[in-house]
Amino acid sequence: MASGVDSLINQLYEMIQDAWGVPLSSDKCVITRDKALDLLDEINYQLPTELKRAQEILAKKEEYEEAAKKEAEIIKQKAEAHAKQMMSEQEIVNAARKKANEMIAAAEAKAKEMRRVSNEYVDEALKRAEEVVSNALNDIRQSRARFRNAAISPLKKKEDE
To answer: What is the largest CA-CA distance in the chain?
Structure first.
């Protein structure tokens, strides 16, 4: 949905850039208020979608972590079961325990790595979402300020005359 918000912001930029300039003013223009407000309303409508996407990413991160924990537990259970089957001779038991510990350590290392990777992914995705939302909000504020200045300036000139 980021492209939807980006597209709306680009439309608003184009609307302002293509607007007719106010005579004797290089930084003021005339835009269709309803169109600008419609674009701002649509941006406000789509921003919650961006935030929902960020929440979905967090949920997926938790799913990845849970899957890694389950996989580690399954590997641990298999290793323990394998070790129990081989208890007939002391050497075999010792080898099985060593192998089980190695498998557990490997599973824990894999779970830790999966957690790290998913945390990095979620952090980066949230960072991008935060930047998009922040940029959109800044753009809206700037456009609104320019709009207010453009709308107020002709009124001030008429009052001054």
So the answer is: 106
Instruction: Give me the amino acid identity at 132.
Output: V
Residue 38: other Cβ atoms inside 10 A: 14
Task: Tell me, yes or no, if the pTM score tops 0.85.
Answer: no
The string of DSSP letters for 80-138 reads HHHHHHTTTSHHHHHHHHHHHHHHHHHHHHHHHHHHHHHHHHHHHHHHHHHHHHHHHHH
C-alpha to C-alpha distance for 54 and 46, rounded to whole angstroms: 13
Please compute the mean of the pLDDT values over residues 110-132 and round it to a whole number.
91
Instruction: Supply the mean pLDDT for the chain.
Output: 84
For the chain, the domains span 2-160
- For residue 88, what pLDDT band results from cuts at 50, 70 and 90? low
